[in-house]
């Protein structure tokens, strides 16, 4: 028995010792000291090369690479492991930026290799600052160039995100040489706030992301690095909000071209010439403009703007967005691939979009009235997300009242764009008037809802009147209830 006890006791002692050692290493700084020793021993077996990135060049001009490295190092996770870090507030509220303290070292990993950065600062009169990259000679050939490229791209993306986005609008350019005026772009719309089929939303996000990375691909093909989107659908379905979401997502400035202020085709070219890269160029309601015979810009002016020679010279890194209520009567030359790469349909609200709006506007994920709302959508009643959103905002203090208003509005079927059956069903119903008046139908039909709907129609009435003809033809399209369609 004693013989059996001995190995068990020994095992127990070893395990306890290991446990104690682990506690000792992790609870104290011993683990870091051990790691440091190990690194110094490892360093003895490698040959290193050092690359200096000084803050200023020999003419005392700022070295742009120094700024890029500084931005890049502030973003990598290992900066938090450094012994001394400086904390600064960033440009945006609640933003905290980490900066490496002078003479601190941080590690970074790239393509399986480890590199180190030293923030060298000499305390002489010039206070010359330099980042020193320490890289194993064996890894240099494999990683140096792609690593510097990686720093360039990452810092560029980070800067882009931090940048304040601007909205440019074109002004009458009789005497002015500068045709654009800018204001800060503060539209709060993001991809999260847009009610849209989630698959489509993700596809669009990844389409934008892959566009950003495709510079060399486009140039290899001899094409301008631009992507064009057509957003089409009835009024109040989120087209303009989606443009804002794109700009916020990419951190791109928006150039909103008001075609009625453009003097002629050459003025249109000048406008394009004066846009900067990393921007969204937007033309709203293009269909209406094309149908207007009194305009000063010709169809060929528009076609050249979209995909002409000038475009291939100076439309690099731009997203072009055109919005329309209906694309049925638009010249196919405008819609051809190259001029428009992706077509995105913005339909009237369906039940899934309604749920997103209810969640966003009222914070309601589920409610007993949802089943009634769903039934109305199934029978073909429909409102635009803008109309539903307004009803929800007006009743945001009482989700039940808000949902009742939506049901009531769906019963009257917006302005009659949904199924005719449901309207007939209600008009034929002899008891309808009395129930409307008493506000008791199914416990949800309230005067409030109808009145609210009337108010909203007043707001939207003007726009509707203008776009009615287009919307009607659009709404008859067989896919108008199928969710957004996209040529991705
Ligand atoms: N899909 C949506 N998701 C979230 N909010 C929406 C959506 N569609 C519309 N809205 C809301 O409705 C309002 C109007 O939307 P927006 O101006 O984007 O519509 P639009 O399609 O551009 O209309 P129009 O064709 O009349 O210019 C905005 O305040 C927006 O918040
Ligand atoms: Mg709009």
Automatic annotation (TrEMBL):
<dbReference type="InterPro" id="IPR003593">
    <property type="entry name" value="AAA+_ATPase"/>
</dbReference>
<protein>
    <recommendedName>
        <fullName>AAA+ ATPase domain-containing protein</fullName>
    </recommendedName>
</protein>
<dbReference type="InterPro" id="IPR003959">
    <property type="entry name" value="ATPase_AAA_core"/>
</dbReference>
<dbReference type="GO" id="GO:0005524">
    <property type="term" value="F:ATP binding"/>
</dbReference>
<feature type="region of interest" description="Disordered">
    <location>
        <begin position="427"/>
        <end position="446"/>
    </location>
</feature>
<dbReference type="InterPro" id="IPR025753">
    <property type="entry name" value="AAA_N_dom"/>
</dbReference>
<dbReference type="Pfam" id="PF25568">
    <property type="entry name" value="AAA_lid_At3g28540"/>
</dbReference>
<feature type="domain" description="AAA+ ATPase">
    <location>
        <begin position="225"/>
        <end position="350"/>
    </location>
</feature>
<dbReference type="GO" id="GO:0006950">
    <property type="term" value="P:response to stress"/>
</dbReference>
<dbReference type="Pfam" id="PF00004">
    <property type="entry name" value="AAA"/>
</dbReference>
<keyword id="KW-0460">Magnesium</keyword>
<dbReference type="InterPro" id="IPR058017">
    <property type="entry name" value="At3g28540-like_C"/>
</dbReference>
<comment type="similarity">
    <text>Belongs to the AAA ATPase family. BCS1 subfamily.</text>
</comment>
<dbReference type="Pfam" id="PF14363">
    <property type="entry name" value="AAA_assoc"/>
</dbReference>
<dbReference type="InterPro" id="IPR027417">
    <property type="entry name" value="P-loop_NTPase"/>
</dbReference>
<keyword id="KW-0378">Hydrolase</keyword>
<dbReference type="InterPro" id="IPR050747">
    <property type="entry name" value="Mitochondrial_chaperone_BCS1"/>
</dbReference>
<dbReference type="GO" id="GO:0016887">
    <property type="term" value="F:ATP hydrolysis activity"/>
</dbReference>
């Amino acid at each position: 028995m004693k013989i059996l006890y001995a190995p068990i006791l020994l095992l127990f002692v070893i395990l306890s010792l290991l446990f104690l050692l682990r506690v000792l290493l992790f609870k104290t700084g011993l683990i870091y000291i051990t790691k440091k020793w190990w690194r110094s021993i490892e360093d003895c077996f490698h040959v290193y090369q050092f690359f200096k990135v000084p803050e200023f060049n020999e003419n005392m001009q700022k070295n742009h690479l120094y700024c890029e490295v500084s931005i890049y190092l502030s973003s990598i996770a290992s900066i938090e492991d450094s012994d001394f870090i400086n904390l600064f507030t960033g440009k945006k509220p609640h933003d905290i930026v980490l900066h490496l303290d002078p003479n601190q070292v941080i590690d970074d990993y790239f393509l399986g290799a480890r590199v180190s950065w030293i923030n060298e600062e000499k305390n002489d009169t010039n206070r010359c600052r330099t980042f020193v990259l320490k890289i194993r000679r064996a890894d240099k050939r494999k990683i140096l160039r792609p690593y510097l490229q990686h720093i360039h791209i990452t810092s560029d993306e980070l800067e882009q995100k931090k940048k304040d986005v601007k909205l440019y609008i074109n002004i009458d350019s009789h005497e002015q040489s500068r045709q654009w005026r800018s204001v800060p772009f503060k539209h709060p719309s993001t991809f999260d706030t847009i009610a849209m089929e989630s698959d489509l939303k993700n596809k669009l996000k990844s389409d934008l992301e892959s566009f950003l990375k495709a510079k060399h691909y486009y140039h290899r093909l001899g094409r301008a690095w631009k992507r064009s989107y057509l957003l089409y659908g009835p009024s109040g379905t989120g087209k303009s909000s989606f443009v804002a979401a794109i700009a916020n997502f990419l951190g791109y400035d928006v150039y909103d071209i008001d075609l009625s202020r453009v003097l002629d085709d050459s003025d249109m070219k000048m406008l394009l010439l004066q846009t900067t890269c990393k921007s969204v160029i937007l033309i709203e309601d293009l269909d209406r403009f094309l149908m207007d015979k009194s305009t000063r810009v010709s169809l060929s002016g528009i076609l050249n703007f979209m995909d002409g020679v000038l475009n291939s010279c100076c439309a690099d890194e731009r997203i072009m967005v055109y919005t329309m209520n209906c694309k049925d009567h638009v010249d196919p030359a405008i819609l051809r691939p190259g001029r428009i790469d992706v077509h995105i349909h913005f339909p009237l609200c369906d039940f899934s979009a309604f749920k997103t709006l209810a969640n966003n506007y009222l914070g309601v994920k589920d409610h007993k009235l949802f089943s009634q709302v769903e039934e109305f959508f199934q029978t073909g009643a429909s409102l635009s997300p803008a109309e539903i959103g307004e009803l929800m905002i007006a009743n945001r203090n009482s989700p039940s009242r808000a949902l009742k208003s939506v049901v009531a509005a769906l019963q009257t079927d917006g302005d009659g764009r949904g199924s005719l059956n449901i309207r007939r069903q209600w008009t034929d119903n002899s008891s309808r008037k009395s129930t409307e008046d008493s506000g008791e139908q199914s416990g949800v039909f309230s005067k409030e809802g109808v009145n609210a709907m009337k108010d909203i129609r007043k707001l939207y009435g003007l726009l509707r009147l203008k776009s009615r003809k287009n919307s009607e033809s659009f709404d008859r399209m067989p896919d108008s209830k199928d969710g957004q369609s996209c040529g991705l």
